[in-house]
Amino acid sequence: MTRFALTLEFDGGPFMGLQRQLLEPTVQQAVEAAAFSITGERVTLAAAGRTDAGVHALAMRAHLDIAKQIAPFRLMEALNAVLRPAPIAVLDCRIVPGDWHARFSCTRRAYRYRIINRRAPLTVEAGRAWHVRQPLDAEAMQRAAQGLVGTHDFTTFRSVHCQSKSPVKSLDQLDVKICSSPSSGDLILVETAARSYLPSSALDGRLPGAGRLGSLAGKPDHRSLGRKRPHRFGAERSASWIVFHGCRIPGSYWRLNDDHHWQAAAHHARGRR
């Protein structure tokens, strides 16, 4: 039995999350079905994160155990061929030790949240960002965000469906960055990293709420982050504004660099020479 580590990229729009469900399409089901058509084996995909419905991924680490003798590159090519036209791509495939586990070996998971702050409706970015029409103060959001970094009780951020054993989590990073464009408005990127998260807990309106208050009063209202009912902005949003950005597993950190090149791709290229 050989363990293959995969790096997956996927558009979460058509899926009800990554983890297998009884009646709804998921990323796990699609990859497992593709692997079965290639190997004839019923395999189980384990992944670094369990994304919610609609959440995208740029570098989701996962693994499969396969008995059939097959080279990693051939497996990657075969999976990509069978997965079409589903919006899932295998970016990297390699053999790893049997005790390497995509979920349990992962020590850090990173997400990126995309907010476009402008009055006009979205066109090209529709389905790829949260559209907030009211003016936001990104600096106020950044200051408020730092109050959440560290270990805290996130009870007021929990979903009613949350099954996590404890609301106490440690947030390693929560940064707000702004990219301004005179023609298309402000793109606000919120980047967060932690070992684990509460489902549906992150940024469900509270952080932009602090930005809204900050733009009005000149300072962020840190207390707004703990309200059970987050601020509403009159614009619909879904999990499509959330992207699984990368993860850290001992020996590697699979993420998008600042120059928009994947570290995983660079490593893979060197490995094939």
Note down, in words, how this protein is organized:
This protein is α+β, with helices and mostly antiparallel strands and 273 residues long. Helices cover 20% and strands 31% of the residues. The chain contains five helices and eleven strands, in the order βαββαβββαβββαββα. It has helices at residues 27-39, 72-83, 138-145, 206-217, 263-272; strands at 2-10, 46-47, 56-66, 88-96, 108-117, 130-132, 150-153, 168-181, 185-194, 242-249, 252-255. Strands 1, 2, 3, 4, 5, 6, 7, 8, 9, 10 and 11 form an eleven-stranded mixed beta sheet that branches. A hairpin with a 3-residue loop joins β8 and β9. α1 (27-39) crosses α2 (72-83) and α3 (138-145) crosses α4 (206-217). The longest helix has 13 residues, at 27-39. The chain is globular, with a radius of gyration of 20 Å. The relative contact order is 0.18. Mean pLDDT is 76; it is low at 213-237 and 256-273.
Shape: globular
Number of helices: 5
* Quaternary organisation: single chain
- Which H/E pattern describes the elements? EHEEHEEEHEEEHEEH
Topology, number of strands? 11
Kindly provide the radius of gyration, computed on alpha-carbon positions and rounded to a whole number of angstroms: 20 Å
Percent helix among the residues?
10-25%
Terminal Cα separation, in Å? 26 Å
Q: Biggest β-sheet: count, sense, barrel?
A: 11 strands, mixed
Estimated share of beta-strand residues: 25-35%
Class computed from helices, strands and strand pairing: alpha+beta
Low-confidence stretches: 213-237, 256-273
Mean pLDDT: 76
